Amino acid sequence: MFKTKNKYLLFLLYLNTVLGSGIVSNLDNLSLYGSYSLFSYKEDFISESLELINSRPNYSNISIGLVYNGKYELRFNHINNSNSENIYSFPFKDEFISMDVNYHIKKLDYINFKIGFSTMKAINNQYSNFAFLLGAYKDINYFNNPVVMYFDYKNSKHNCLVCDLEKNSNFSFGGKVKLSVDKLDNNELKDIIFLGLTLNTNDFSKYYFGVNSGLFIPIK
Question: What domains sit in the chain, N to C, each tagged with a CATH number?
């Protein structure tokens, strides 16, 4: 349908409303979280008739997960991608199911690390991928509320018989402000509201910002 793409990304919006994340857990407890994410951007295409056409691909992600002992994180995701032409490395307009497993290393004095992997499979097409994740983050307590600064690197290998996608990488840098919710009984297991901002790229030629907010809920 489209002959060429405009090589410049004009606009991208990343909206992420999240309940919880392993990087905001400081207690040795069990915590449950859920999330809803929406990714959208605008890009120009030039059609075969040399007409300028605006495209706005987007995808949504619904997740549920848990964190145990502040170290072990398990998350399940349902992803709905609206357009096969996108910068997200989704080759089809389809729904996807994925699972993420992360391990958090929090015994170092200056910085924390996480390592993990994820698997994904398309529901209606012959496609799957496996990804490796490496991240680093640090709590900064110089402000009225703690801030978690983090960097994530994700390397994905794709298995697709009818597309050219084989491997890709994703880089994310961001921060989250943690706001503890005081309880009447002064329980140490406090809910945490957080607000965050991220900068993301796949190939260092196109960048997009992300905003996120959510609630971390310890159970016991």
Answer: 2-218 (2.40.128)
pLDDT given for residue 192 in this prediction: 75
How far is it, in rounded angstroms, from Cα 100 to Cα 42? 28
Q: How far apart are CA 191 and CA 219, in angstroms?
A: 9
**Which class for 44: exposed (0-12), middle (13-18), buried (19 or more C-beta within 10 A)?**
middle
3-state helix, strand, coil in the chain (%, to 5): 0, 65, 35
Asked if 60 and 79 count as a contact pair (C-beta separation under 8 A), the reply is: yes
Q: Strand, helix or coil at 154?
A: strand
Residue 144 DSSP label: S
Low-confidence ranges of the chain (pLDDT < 50): 1-11, 18-20
